[in-house]
């Protein structure tokens, strides 16, 4: 068992010589899985002295962040979660000012500075707006990790260039850095850091030892003695332990503690399920059709094969599937089945989809109409967008992982290769490798780049091409890519060469979706789906056939006229 993330903290805030304390600070250490998926959050805010309501802004910014950050999807990365919350809070503060008597004077509105630090796994994520500061404490000095957003107009006069609530747009400084046990951080408002030099602050923290609350109080008291005329707030965070391995791995290690189930036979019972038949068997997994006897619902049970019991990577991927399925809500993504009984073995239960794989469907329907293909591709796209909204990338989109029921409804299955940003953003330096089917994986994944939603778009484009032509746009060449030169050498074979009745603009749409260079694909998956049905307004102008094809007679008449003119000119010169 690896150690988990833990910290010690000391905090102190005082109004100082002012009648009202416009600073606000907070620390939240969650319990359970949120400590793994979200981490520990620390926030400090400082209201501007020219405003009589900025203490409301400070409290709203800190309290709102500590509440809303932990309510964001667990699949989101720390950066996305924090920035989404900060942008929403800024919009609310700015709206409060615009609806108040201070709407024409932003310096008297709901404005504050804010610094946030999120410690997750073995990484510190810093978010900063304004002139509160975040330091890393060394033995006898401080390292300033944030940048002051303040413009000095003279030695005595300055103004903030960035703050929460000051405008409808917000520019957030972000950085991340690795942490280890013993690392100490200081967050302070300008009432402290403008009146104490860094060596003095580092000395106070060092001399206070493990009593971090006392250190925070001493920092405030010393700044007050040095003539501080502002509010004084300090937070000191010391890292006690970090996970020896990424905590996402530890999470799934805990989920995979159940024993492996033996191979099952029709008629056997397991945790309230009755096995009907085996659907699939391989060296990696066994899949069974079963019925939940309590609800008489048919379900699919997927169990890792006994050969995989010593493969931690496979076990993590297997456990990830159920975690992902419980967080995605889409009519086109396989739904987990919730049983009233606790499992006694390691397996996954999902709702049964009557139908066949897209691979079988293509064999049964070798020449589908263009509208049928569009309908299937749009449904797959809707399923993929449900992943992408949660910062997940399917990474294994292939015909075998798409089910089609008798009514033509599509369902995506098998999430073992799915990349989840929120569970990977602390794994520094991990090399990306293709995790999906080679013939459907995007070229960039073979060059060591992590899969993105643009990679899923490539896979969907390949499936579109195959549905229409029965072949692949680059044959078997993509898995052979090992360099940028090879990538640039990939040549798209036009689909209309294999299916003559295919409109040229549809072929161009597919070609862009499967472009070898990711940045040349569609900027949004929805745009690709739209373009499959709607040509660009100027497409015909940009792809107008040459005159020789449009009107051969006029072309040759023009050539003859030019030759006649050239002949007459030559005779005249002669």
From TrEMBL:
Species: Marinobacter manganoxydans MnI7-9
Keyword vocabulary terms for this entry: Kinase, Membrane, Transferase, Transmembrane, Transmembrane helix
Pfam families: Pkinase, PP2C_2
Domain named PPM-type phosphatase: residues: 8-239
Gene Ontology molecular functions: ATP binding; protein serine/threonine kinase activity
Protein name: Protein kinase
Residues in Protein kinase domain copies: 273-537
Segments traversing the membrane: 554-573
A cellular component term, taken from the record's GO annotations: cytoplasm
InterPro entries: Kinase-like_dom_sf (IPR011009), PPM-type-like_dom_sf (IPR036457), PPM-type_phosphatase-like_dom (IPR001932), Prot_kinase_dom (IPR000719), Ser/Thr_kinase_AS (IPR008271)
Phylogenetic placement of the source organism: Bacteria, Pseudomonadati, Pseudomonadota, Gammaproteobacteria, Pseudomonadales
């Amino acid at each position: 068992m690896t150690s988990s993330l833990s910290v010690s903290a000391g905090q102190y805030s005082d109004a100082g010589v002012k009648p009202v304390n416009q600073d606000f600070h907070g620390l939240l250490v969650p319990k359970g899985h949120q400590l793994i998926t979200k981490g520990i959050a620390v926030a400090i805010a400082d209201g501007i002295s020219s405003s009589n309501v900025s203490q409301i802004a400070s409290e709203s910014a800190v309290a709102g962040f500590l509440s809303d950050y932990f309510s964001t999807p667990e699949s989101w990365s720390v950066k996305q979660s924090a920035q989404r919350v900060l942008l929403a809070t800024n919009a609310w503060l700015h709206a409060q000012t615009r609806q108040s008597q201070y709407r024409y004077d932003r310096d008297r509105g709901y404005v504050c500075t804010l610094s946030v630090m999120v410690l997750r796994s073995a990484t510190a994520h810093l978010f900063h707006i304004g002139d509160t500061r975040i330091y890393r404490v060394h033995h006898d000095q401080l390292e300033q990790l944030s940048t002051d957003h303040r413009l000095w107009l003279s030695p005595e006069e300055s103004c903030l260039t960035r703050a929460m609530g000051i405008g409808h747009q917000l520019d957030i400084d972000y950085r991340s850095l690795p942490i280890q046990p013993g690392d100490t951080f200081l967050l302070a408002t300008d009432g402290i850091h403008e009146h104490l030099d860094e060596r003095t602050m580092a000395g106070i923290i060092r001399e206070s030892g493990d009593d971090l609350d006392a250190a925070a109080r001493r920092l405030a008291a010393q700044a007050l003695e040095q003539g501080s005329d502002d509010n004084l707030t300090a937070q000191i965070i010391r890292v006690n332990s970090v996970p020896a391995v990424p905590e996402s791995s530890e999470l799934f290690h805990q989920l995979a503690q159940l024993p492996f189930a033996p191979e099952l036979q029709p008629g056997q019972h397991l945790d309230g399920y009755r096995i009907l038949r085996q659907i699939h068997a391989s060296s990696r997994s066994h899949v069974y059709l079963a019925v939940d006897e309590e609800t008489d619902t048919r379900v699919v049970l997927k169990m890792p094969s006994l050969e995989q019991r010593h493969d931690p990577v496979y076990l993590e991927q297997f456990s990830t599937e159920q975690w992902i399925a419980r967080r995605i809500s889409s009519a086109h993504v396989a739904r987990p089945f919730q049983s009233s009984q606790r499992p006694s073995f390691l397996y996954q239960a999902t709702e049964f989809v009557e139908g066949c794989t897209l691979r079988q469907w293509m064999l049964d329907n070798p020449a589908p109409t263009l509208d049928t293909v569009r309908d299937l591709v749009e449904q797959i796209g809707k399923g993929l967008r449900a992943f992408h909204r949660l910062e997940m990338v399917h990474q294994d989109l292939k015909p075998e992982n798409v089910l089609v029921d008798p009514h033509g409804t599509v369902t995506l299955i098998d999430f073992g290769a799915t990349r989840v940003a929120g569970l990977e953003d602390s794994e520094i330096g991990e090399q990306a490798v293709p995790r999906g089917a080679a013939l459907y994986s995007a070229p960039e994944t073979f060059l060591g780049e992590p899969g993105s939603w643009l990679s899923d778009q490539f896979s969907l484009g390949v499936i579109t091409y195959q549905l229409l032509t029965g072949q692949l746009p680059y044959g078997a060449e993509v898995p052979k890519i090992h360099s940028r030169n090879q990538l640039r050498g990939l040549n798209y074979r036009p689909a209309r060469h294999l299916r003559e009745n295919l409109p040229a603009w549809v072929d161009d749409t597919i070609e862009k979706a499967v472009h070898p260079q990711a940045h040349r694909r569609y900027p949004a998956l929805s745009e690709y789906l739209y373009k499959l049905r709607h040509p660009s307004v100027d497409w015909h102008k940009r792809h107008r056939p040459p005159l020789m094809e449009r009107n051969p007679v006029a072309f040759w008449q023009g050539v003859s006229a030019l030759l006649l003119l050239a002949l007459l000119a030559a005779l005249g010169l002669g």
